[in-house]
Design a protein that fits this description.
Elements (H helix, E strand, L loop, with lengths): L15 H12 L3 E6 L4 E9 L3 E5 L7 E4 L3 E6 L3
Length: 80
């Protein structure tokens, strides 16, 4: 038996894809830090994303880094 989960009346209905797409769109072109599940961090400028990956422009590297989302613990906008 499964129960349906609904959003509170005060909040619009949001699907998980909409949450991450909105966050990525707001932070595209901004410096971010990505913590990987192995504990390593990568800092760079958020360039693009899709359902499974994101790309960061990292200083000192000609090509952007391609990071698989399943390897991410979190991504956060860097504060200067």
């Amino acid at each position: 038996m499964s129960a349906a989960v609904s959003a509170p009346a005060s909040h619009p209905t949001m699907h998980p894809g909409n949450v991450q797409d909105g966050w990525y769109a707001r932070n595209r072109g901004h410096p971010v830090v990505a913590r990987l599940t192995d504990g390593k961090t990568i800092s760079g400028t958020l360039a693009a994303w899709d359902s499974y990956t994101l790309t960061l422009h990292v200083a000192g590297h000609a090509e952007p880094f391609l990071i698989y989302k399943h390897a991410l613990a979190f991504v956060a906008r860097k504060t200067e």
